[in-house]
Amino acid sequence: MPGAGRVRQPEGPSLSVVIPVLDDAAALAECLALLARQTRPADEVIVVDNGCSDSSVQVALDAGARVVREPGRGIPAAAATGYDAAAGEVIVRCDADTRPPEDWLARIGAAFGADPGLDALTGPGRFYDLPRPLAWLASAAYSSGYRYGAGAALAGVPVWGSNFAMRRTAWQRCAAEIHRHQAGIHDDLDLSFQLAPWATVRFDRGLRVGAAGRMFNGPGAFARRFGWAFATLKLNWAIQSPGQRWLDRVNARRPAFRRT
Fold it and tell me: Going edge to edge, which strands form the sheet with 15-21?
């Protein structure tokens, strides 16, 4: 699939798209079809099989994606395995239910190509499977809440698992610090904690994708995700408190005193 029927654009860094999957064949098929229509194709698409019992693996292979397997259940383990396997200079992450517009990869490639100091890039999403008035409100509330709430918790810009990219060198720097074998946490928030102390992470309002509003599928789904968020915060705050994180950030940005 990557590059099929297209001329590879030489500009910008190489891109590896990573998609963790567990029994999501129909959504994955749509996501891969949209990736195949990108104006700037991916150099590789990696689908991480996290123990699928449906046709997800065959869907990925039929679309020309590379399949890697992660037997340890959980998105943290699956996502990390995909990042480890990526060969591109920039690792792009989405979910099986992500719906990227045709210029998604082009925007990502251009952003990293234009700014050598950029370590990670993220953007918002729109919940495409909710009723229209609710979709707009829920999308705006979730994006703002996650961006500013999680940002305050980690003293930085959080990346969102349905829509972000990072340099492979950035991943290699923090790969040993993430909690890849910790079940019941948000992998993207956990990664954000490891990036925050040193990485340059940018939020791009125009880097927008569609996403499924699964968290709104009843109070149980919302409570489960809230529990994952709390567990992720607790895990990382045990290492360094929010206050210390902000203090370190302020000190890192304070100009050094020079004696004249």
Answer: 66-69, 44-49, 15-21, 90-93, 164-167, 120-122, 201-203
